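Question (not urgent): is this output format expected?
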Amino acid sequence: MNSIIEGRIFKFGDNVNSDVIIPGRYLIYIDRERLAQHAFEMLGDGFPDKLRGFEILVAGRNFGCGSAREQAATAIQGLGIKAVVACSFARTFYRNAINDGLPIVECPELYSAVQEGDEIRIDLAAGKIHRGAQEYSCPAMPDSVRKILELGGLAEYLKSQLRGVESAPVE
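Got this back:
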């Protein structure tokens, strides 16, 4: 994964609940595409398909609040969303997103400056978000977290670490 993410945004408000992201009745699935078919469906017919036209979600405060379900981040990725930028995240969602390989960035200043459909560019390593000539600061993603994201999540990161140990010469 490149530390640069670019795309068109869909804008949500505050307190986007994980129960809205993926309703509980679909938690029997783990496949990204299957979960994506039902992501945000509570918001109306065709909503999952509408979101497929965007690459980045921008939201207000407390994105991912509600139930601590790992499938919320997975469903978002299944829609083709490359990153989520919010004023703040529910802590469990934040950790689940990183574990699943979904880049998430806190940047409260961006929220009021953008409209749905705007294009932004996120530089995870530098901690910068660009919208045209405007630049917004956000926490730079540590190398260790960027490596987890690059490999597709914590499970893939751990597998890569184990492969490294297995291929190390025995002394």
